[in-house]
Structure prediction request, 102 residues.
Amino acid sequence: MLAEVEHANLFTCWQPHNGEETAECVAGLRAVAAKVTNMHVFHWWPTSADRRPLAEGEARWAEFWAVLKALPGERHAMLEFVPGDEPDAFLRDAGTLARWLR
Prediction:
């Protein structure tokens, strides 16, 4: 859609696809990276039924951050989908995300 519309003011959010290996996700991110304004940050692995603590996805997310940090401009990260939808899980994952973004 981004290529078809090809408009300077059209942007997108990005999140890794469920069940895709890291390399596939990185390739997809690179394809749209210049148009990404926000990241949906979570760690489901290997399926959406397997919500895991964000810290367990550190190696995977490090590859995504590397793609984005190489681009000019600012991006935003939104934490979502924590294990069990538990407030304590949210706070734990928020701490992980804050550490990654420092």
